[in-house]
Amino acid sequence: MQTKMPLTFLHRSANGASKTDSRRGRKRRFGIAGAANVILTNAVLQALLASNVVNIAVATLTSQAVNTIFGYTIYGKLVFRAHGLRQKRQVIRYTLLMATMWILNTGGIELGATANISKNVAALAMVPVLAVLSYLVQKNWVFR
Asked: Fewest CB atoms within 10 A around its CB: which of 27, 45, 97, 142?
């Protein structure tokens, strides 16, 4: 019986040491961490959207702030196993990514609302789109 070996890649860390990282393991960690992050940030977003106390931009900005604080740590440490998370370059890149995600999320929800789709449903529909984009940008730009 033949067993499948996970695809591994050799990476060089900032100090020059080599390490291997399973592509499948990283995606699994992103999925688990992402699920926790989505539950937390979407609970905030859905509550704000349902309350009608604030507009869509403020609701998404608030949930994005929660996402940024929680996400930087869990994605950087647990998913991409990045070193030097306090380095200005990574913090700036992650913040730029989160600002872009906020703009896209706000625009997607606004577009849905214009098409007579519930704001809450539009927000949920944006989750997979933003998750894929976030993973790719974090992997290839923020935590590389």
From this structure: 27
